Amino acid sequence: MKYTLLHTLLLAFLWSGLSSCRPAKPLMPVRFGGEAQGTYYAITYFDADSRNFHTQIDSLLHRFDSSASTYMPTSIISMVNNNDTTVRTDSIFNIIFRKSMEISANTGGAFDITVGPLVNAWGFGFTSHIKVNQHVIDSLLPLVSYKLVHLEGNRVYKDKPGIKLDYNAIAQGFSVDEIGRFLQLKGIEDYLVDVGGEVLGKGKKPDGSSWNVGVEKPAANADDPQALKAVVKLKDMALSTSGNYRKYYEENGVRYAHTIDPKTGYPVQHSLLSASVLAPDCMTADGYATAFMVMGLERSKAFLMQHPELQVYFIISGSKGEMLIYISPGFKQIVEEQY
Questions:
Q1: Which range, of 227-236, 238-247, 248-257, 311-320, averages the lowest pLDDT?
Q2: What pTM was computed for the model?
Q3: Which distant-in-sequence residues (6+ apart) come within 8 Å of 16 by Cβ?
Q4: Which of 171, 177, 233, 339 could form a disulfide with 167 if both were Cys (CB 3.0 to 4.6 A apart)?
Q5: What per-residue string of b and e applies to 41-75 under the rule 16 or more CB within 10 Å gives b?
Protein backbone atom coordinates (compact mmCIF):
# COMPACT_ATOMS: atom_id res chain seq x y z
CA MET A 1 0.00 0.00 0.00
CA LYS A 2 2.85 2.40 0.93
CA TYR A 3 4.66 1.58 -2.33
CA THR A 4 1.49 2.25 -4.32
CA LEU A 5 0.94 5.58 -2.58
CA LEU A 6 4.56 6.68 -3.12
CA HIS A 7 4.37 5.57 -6.72
CA THR A 8 1.19 7.55 -7.24
CA LEU A 9 2.71 10.65 -5.63
CA LEU A 10 5.84 10.32 -7.75
CA LEU A 11 3.81 10.05 -10.94
CA ALA A 12 1.77 13.06 -9.90
CA PHE A 13 4.95 15.04 -9.24
CA LEU A 14 6.45 14.06 -12.59
CA TRP A 15 3.20 14.91 -14.42
CA SER A 16 3.10 18.30 -12.69
CA GLY A 17 6.66 19.02 -13.78
CA LEU A 18 5.96 17.98 -17.34
CA SER A 19 2.82 20.10 -17.42
CA SER A 20 4.65 23.18 -16.15
CA CYS A 21 7.24 22.78 -18.91
CA ARG A 22 4.62 22.84 -21.64
CA PRO A 23 4.60 26.16 -23.50
CA ALA A 24 1.60 28.41 -22.88
CA LYS A 25 -0.87 28.67 -25.71
CA PRO A 26 -0.22 31.79 -27.79
CA LEU A 27 -2.65 34.67 -27.53
CA MET A 28 -4.67 34.94 -30.72
CA PRO A 29 -6.32 38.13 -32.01
CA VAL A 30 -10.13 38.27 -32.16
CA ARG A 31 -11.76 41.15 -34.01
CA PHE A 32 -15.37 42.01 -34.78
CA GLY A 33 -17.71 44.98 -34.93
CA GLY A 34 -21.19 46.12 -35.81
CA GLU A 35 -23.69 48.91 -35.37
CA ALA A 36 -25.15 50.20 -32.12
CA GLN A 37 -26.50 53.47 -30.73
CA GLY A 38 -26.67 54.98 -34.20
CA THR A 39 -22.96 54.47 -34.76
CA TYR A 40 -20.34 51.73 -35.13
CA TYR A 41 -18.51 49.61 -32.63
CA ALA A 42 -15.22 47.77 -33.09
CA ILE A 43 -13.58 45.37 -30.66
CA THR A 44 -10.15 43.74 -30.68
CA TYR A 45 -8.80 41.43 -28.01
CA PHE A 46 -6.29 38.63 -27.55
CA ASP A 47 -7.38 35.23 -26.26
CA ALA A 48 -5.50 31.94 -26.16
CA ASP A 49 -8.73 30.06 -26.96
CA SER A 50 -9.83 32.44 -29.76
CA ARG A 51 -13.26 32.78 -28.18
CA ASN A 52 -15.65 35.03 -30.07
CA PHE A 53 -18.10 36.99 -27.92
CA HIS A 54 -19.79 38.86 -30.78
CA THR A 55 -23.28 37.57 -30.02
CA GLN A 56 -23.02 38.21 -26.30
CA ILE A 57 -21.79 41.78 -26.81
CA ASP A 58 -24.56 42.47 -29.32
CA SER A 59 -27.03 41.37 -26.63
CA LEU A 60 -25.32 43.55 -24.04
CA LEU A 61 -25.57 46.60 -26.32
CA HIS A 62 -29.23 45.88 -27.02
CA ARG A 63 -29.90 45.75 -23.27
CA PHE A 64 -28.09 49.06 -22.94
CA ASP A 65 -30.30 50.65 -25.63
CA SER A 66 -33.43 49.39 -23.91
CA SER A 67 -32.42 51.43 -20.88
CA ALA A 68 -30.63 54.55 -22.14
CA SER A 69 -31.51 55.20 -25.79
CA THR A 70 -33.76 58.21 -26.43
CA TYR A 71 -34.33 56.85 -29.95
CA MET A 72 -36.08 53.72 -28.65
CA PRO A 73 -39.67 54.62 -27.65
CA THR A 74 -39.89 51.75 -25.17
CA SER A 75 -36.59 52.45 -23.41
CA ILE A 76 -36.55 53.44 -19.77
CA ILE A 77 -35.28 56.95 -20.51
CA SER A 78 -38.00 57.48 -23.13
CA MET A 79 -40.69 56.42 -20.69
CA VAL A 80 -39.22 58.75 -18.06
CA ASN A 81 -39.31 61.58 -20.60
CA ASN A 82 -42.95 60.75 -21.36
CA ASN A 83 -43.80 60.91 -17.64
CA ASP A 84 -44.79 57.25 -17.45
CA THR A 85 -45.41 56.77 -13.72
CA THR A 86 -45.15 52.98 -13.97
CA VAL A 87 -41.53 52.92 -15.15
CA ARG A 88 -38.78 51.65 -12.85
CA THR A 89 -35.15 52.28 -13.62
CA ASP A 90 -32.44 49.63 -13.85
CA SER A 91 -28.76 49.53 -12.90
CA ILE A 92 -27.65 50.89 -16.29
CA PHE A 93 -29.90 53.94 -16.02
CA ASN A 94 -28.95 54.52 -12.39
CA ILE A 95 -25.18 54.36 -12.92
CA ILE A 96 -25.32 56.83 -15.81
CA PHE A 97 -27.64 59.13 -13.86
CA ARG A 98 -25.40 59.27 -10.80
CA LYS A 99 -22.24 59.88 -12.81
CA SER A 100 -24.06 62.61 -14.74
CA MET A 101 -25.08 64.33 -11.50
CA GLU A 102 -21.49 64.12 -10.27
CA ILE A 103 -20.06 65.73 -13.43
CA SER A 104 -22.82 68.36 -13.45
CA ALA A 105 -22.06 69.38 -9.88
CA ASN A 106 -18.30 69.43 -10.52
CA THR A 107 -18.64 71.61 -13.63
CA GLY A 108 -21.30 73.97 -12.33
CA GLY A 109 -23.88 72.66 -14.78
CA ALA A 110 -21.72 72.86 -17.94
CA PHE A 111 -22.64 69.19 -18.32
CA ASP A 112 -26.37 68.63 -17.86
CA ILE A 113 -28.53 65.69 -18.94
CA THR A 114 -31.69 67.84 -18.72
CA VAL A 115 -30.53 69.72 -21.83
CA GLY A 116 -32.86 67.47 -23.86
CA PRO A 117 -35.50 70.14 -24.70
CA LEU A 118 -32.82 72.47 -26.07
CA VAL A 119 -31.04 69.73 -28.02
CA ASN A 120 -34.35 68.75 -29.59
CA ALA A 121 -35.28 72.34 -30.44
CA TRP A 122 -31.98 72.88 -32.25
CA GLY A 123 -32.47 69.67 -34.26
CA PHE A 124 -29.78 67.51 -32.66
CA GLY A 125 -32.03 65.29 -30.56
CA PHE A 126 -34.81 62.80 -31.05
CA THR A 127 -37.46 65.23 -32.38
CA SER A 128 -37.64 67.46 -35.45
CA HIS A 129 -35.81 70.78 -35.65
CA ILE A 130 -37.97 73.84 -34.98
CA LYS A 131 -37.47 77.54 -35.70
CA VAL A 132 -35.48 78.74 -32.70
CA ASN A 133 -35.61 82.32 -31.46
CA GLN A 134 -35.10 83.99 -28.10
CA HIS A 135 -38.75 83.43 -27.15
CA VAL A 136 -38.31 79.67 -27.67
CA ILE A 137 -35.08 79.65 -25.68
CA ASP A 138 -36.70 81.58 -22.83
CA SER A 139 -39.55 79.07 -22.71
CA LEU A 140 -37.20 76.07 -22.55
CA LEU A 141 -34.48 77.26 -20.16
CA PRO A 142 -36.70 76.80 -17.06
CA LEU A 143 -36.79 73.08 -17.93
CA VAL A 144 -32.99 72.78 -17.98
CA SER A 145 -31.19 72.17 -14.70
CA TYR A 146 -29.77 68.97 -13.25
CA LYS A 147 -31.05 70.17 -9.87
CA LEU A 148 -34.65 69.66 -11.05
CA VAL A 149 -34.44 65.89 -11.43
CA HIS A 150 -33.91 63.28 -8.71
CA LEU A 151 -33.36 59.55 -8.46
CA GLU A 152 -34.79 57.78 -5.43
CA GLY A 153 -34.35 54.05 -5.47
CA ASN A 154 -35.54 52.99 -8.91
CA ARG A 155 -37.80 55.96 -9.49
CA VAL A 156 -37.07 59.26 -11.24
CA TYR A 157 -38.81 62.38 -9.98
CA LYS A 158 -38.92 65.53 -12.10
CA ASP A 159 -39.79 68.90 -10.62
CA LYS A 160 -41.43 69.86 -13.92
CA PRO A 161 -43.15 67.44 -16.33
CA GLY A 162 -41.58 69.10 -19.40
CA ILE A 163 -38.06 68.06 -18.35
CA LYS A 164 -36.50 65.59 -20.78
CA LEU A 165 -33.30 63.67 -20.11
CA ASP A 166 -30.62 63.12 -22.73
CA TYR A 167 -27.82 60.61 -22.04
CA ASN A 168 -26.18 60.97 -25.45
CA ALA A 169 -23.19 62.93 -24.13
CA ILE A 170 -22.18 60.17 -21.73
CA ALA A 171 -23.97 56.95 -22.69
CA GLN A 172 -21.50 55.69 -25.28
CA GLY A 173 -18.71 55.98 -22.75
CA PHE A 174 -20.69 53.86 -20.32
CA SER A 175 -21.34 51.20 -22.96
CA VAL A 176 -17.59 51.00 -23.65
CA ASP A 177 -16.96 50.40 -19.94
CA GLU A 178 -19.67 47.73 -19.85
CA ILE A 179 -18.07 45.84 -22.73
CA GLY A 180 -14.73 46.11 -20.97
CA ARG A 181 -16.20 44.68 -17.76
CA PHE A 182 -17.73 41.82 -19.74
CA LEU A 183 -14.38 40.95 -21.32
CA GLN A 184 -12.62 41.10 -17.94
CA LEU A 185 -15.16 38.65 -16.50
CA LYS A 186 -14.32 36.29 -19.36
CA GLY A 187 -10.65 36.47 -18.45
CA ILE A 188 -9.68 38.78 -21.30
CA GLU A 189 -7.01 41.21 -20.10
CA ASP A 190 -5.73 42.72 -23.36
CA TYR A 191 -8.37 44.51 -25.40
CA LEU A 192 -9.41 47.67 -27.22
CA VAL A 193 -13.08 48.67 -27.28
CA ASP A 194 -14.29 51.48 -29.56
CA VAL A 195 -17.92 52.63 -29.68
CA GLY A 196 -18.37 55.61 -31.98
CA GLY A 197 -14.92 56.96 -31.16
CA GLU A 198 -15.15 56.46 -27.39
CA VAL A 199 -12.28 54.10 -26.61
CA LEU A 200 -11.00 51.94 -23.76
CA GLY A 201 -7.65 50.17 -24.01
CA LYS A 202 -6.56 47.60 -21.45
CA GLY A 203 -3.36 45.63 -21.24
CA LYS A 204 -1.18 45.50 -24.32
CA LYS A 205 -0.54 43.60 -27.52
CA PRO A 206 1.38 40.29 -27.32
CA ASP A 207 4.52 42.01 -28.62
CA GLY A 208 4.40 44.38 -25.63
CA SER A 209 3.30 47.45 -27.56
CA SER A 210 0.47 49.75 -26.51
CA TRP A 211 -2.80 50.29 -28.32
CA ASN A 212 -2.57 53.17 -30.79
CA VAL A 213 -5.64 55.41 -31.04
CA GLY A 214 -5.98 58.38 -33.37
CA VAL A 215 -7.21 61.89 -32.59
CA GLU A 216 -8.88 63.41 -35.63
CA LYS A 217 -7.80 66.73 -37.09
CA PRO A 218 -10.83 69.07 -37.05
CA ALA A 219 -12.33 69.29 -40.51
CA ALA A 220 -13.59 72.45 -42.18
CA ASN A 221 -16.69 70.64 -43.46
CA ALA A 222 -18.67 67.67 -42.19
CA ASP A 223 -18.00 65.55 -45.28
CA ASP A 224 -14.24 66.22 -45.49
CA PRO A 225 -12.06 63.08 -45.35
CA GLN A 226 -10.67 62.18 -41.95
CA ALA A 227 -7.07 63.08 -41.13
CA LEU A 228 -5.08 62.34 -37.98
CA LYS A 229 -3.83 65.13 -35.77
CA ALA A 230 -2.25 62.88 -33.14
CA VAL A 231 -1.78 59.25 -32.13
CA VAL A 232 -2.27 58.26 -28.49
CA LYS A 233 -0.57 55.24 -26.95
CA LEU A 234 -3.36 53.92 -24.78
CA LYS A 235 -2.78 51.51 -21.90
CA ASP A 236 -5.25 50.88 -19.08
CA MET A 237 -7.03 54.15 -19.81
CA ALA A 238 -10.03 55.50 -21.69
CA LEU A 239 -10.08 58.24 -24.31
CA SER A 240 -13.04 60.32 -25.46
CA THR A 241 -13.08 63.16 -27.97
CA SER A 242 -15.82 65.74 -28.41
CA GLY A 243 -15.88 68.28 -31.22
CA ASN A 244 -18.23 70.47 -33.22
CA TYR A 245 -16.71 70.09 -36.68
CA ARG A 246 -18.68 67.03 -37.86
CA LYS A 247 -22.14 67.46 -36.37
CA TYR A 248 -23.66 70.81 -37.28
CA TYR A 249 -25.94 72.49 -39.78
CA GLU A 250 -25.94 75.84 -41.53
CA GLU A 251 -28.91 78.17 -41.78
CA ASN A 252 -28.88 81.64 -43.35
CA GLY A 253 -25.10 81.51 -43.44
CA VAL A 254 -24.77 80.68 -39.74
CA ARG A 255 -23.24 77.41 -38.55
CA TYR A 256 -24.98 75.81 -35.54
CA ALA A 257 -22.95 73.18 -33.68
CA HIS A 258 -24.46 70.30 -31.72
CA THR A 259 -22.92 71.22 -28.35
CA ILE A 260 -25.52 73.28 -26.49
CA ASP A 261 -24.67 75.47 -23.53
CA PRO A 262 -27.27 74.64 -20.81
CA LYS A 263 -26.92 78.15 -19.34
CA THR A 264 -27.59 80.20 -22.50
CA GLY A 265 -29.63 77.69 -24.49
CA TYR A 266 -27.53 78.32 -27.60
CA PRO A 267 -24.88 76.27 -29.42
CA VAL A 268 -21.43 77.12 -28.08
CA GLN A 269 -19.32 79.68 -29.92
CA HIS A 270 -15.68 79.74 -28.86
CA SER A 271 -12.18 78.82 -29.99
CA LEU A 272 -12.13 75.23 -28.69
CA LEU A 273 -12.52 72.95 -31.72
CA SER A 274 -12.17 69.59 -29.98
CA ALA A 275 -11.51 68.20 -26.52
CA SER A 276 -9.89 64.80 -26.02
CA VAL A 277 -10.00 63.55 -22.44
CA LEU A 278 -8.00 60.74 -20.88
CA ALA A 279 -9.53 59.14 -17.77
CA PRO A 280 -9.55 55.78 -15.93
CA ASP A 281 -13.00 54.94 -17.34
CA CYS A 282 -14.73 55.92 -20.55
CA MET A 283 -17.96 57.24 -19.03
CA THR A 284 -15.96 59.84 -17.10
CA ALA A 285 -13.89 60.76 -20.17
CA ASP A 286 -17.03 61.06 -22.31
CA GLY A 287 -18.88 63.31 -19.89
CA TYR A 288 -15.97 65.67 -19.30
CA ALA A 289 -15.15 65.91 -23.01
CA THR A 290 -18.63 67.36 -23.53
CA ALA A 291 -18.35 69.60 -20.45
CA PHE A 292 -15.06 71.08 -21.68
CA MET A 293 -16.58 71.84 -25.07
CA VAL A 294 -19.22 73.87 -23.24
CA MET A 295 -16.77 75.52 -20.83
CA GLY A 296 -14.23 76.59 -23.43
CA LEU A 297 -10.45 76.77 -23.11
CA GLU A 298 -9.80 79.05 -20.15
CA ARG A 299 -12.53 77.68 -17.87
CA SER A 300 -11.43 74.14 -18.71
CA LYS A 301 -7.77 74.88 -17.93
CA ALA A 302 -8.75 76.36 -14.57
CA PHE A 303 -10.89 73.29 -13.82
CA LEU A 304 -8.07 70.91 -14.73
CA MET A 305 -5.75 72.55 -12.20
CA GLN A 306 -8.02 71.05 -9.52
CA HIS A 307 -8.53 67.68 -11.26
CA PRO A 308 -5.18 66.04 -12.05
CA GLU A 309 -6.96 62.70 -12.57
CA LEU A 310 -8.04 64.04 -15.97
CA GLN A 311 -5.58 64.62 -18.82
CA VAL A 312 -6.50 66.50 -22.00
CA TYR A 313 -5.52 67.29 -25.56
CA PHE A 314 -7.30 70.42 -26.82
CA ILE A 315 -7.31 71.64 -30.41
CA ILE A 316 -7.96 75.37 -30.59
CA SER A 317 -8.66 77.82 -33.37
CA GLY A 318 -6.16 80.67 -33.22
CA SER A 319 -6.92 84.32 -33.90
CA LYS A 320 -5.69 83.93 -37.48
CA GLY A 321 -7.50 80.66 -38.10
CA GLU A 322 -4.49 78.48 -37.35
CA MET A 323 -4.76 75.35 -35.19
CA LEU A 324 -3.19 75.56 -31.76
CA ILE A 325 -2.71 72.76 -29.24
CA TYR A 326 -2.99 72.63 -25.48
CA ILE A 327 -1.71 69.39 -23.91
CA SER A 328 -1.75 68.60 -20.21
CA PRO A 329 1.48 67.10 -18.77
CA GLY A 330 0.15 63.55 -18.41
CA PHE A 331 -1.24 63.47 -21.94
CA LYS A 332 2.03 64.75 -23.40
CA GLN A 333 3.78 61.56 -22.29
CA ILE A 334 1.64 59.27 -24.48
CA VAL A 335 0.88 61.31 -27.59
CA GLU A 336 2.67 61.62 -30.92
CA GLU A 337 1.59 64.56 -33.04
CA GLN A 338 1.07 64.07 -36.76
CA TYR A 339 2.24 66.77 -39.15
A1: 248-257
A2: 0.87
A3: none
A4: 171
A5: bebbbbbeeeeebeeebeebbeebbbbbbbebeeb
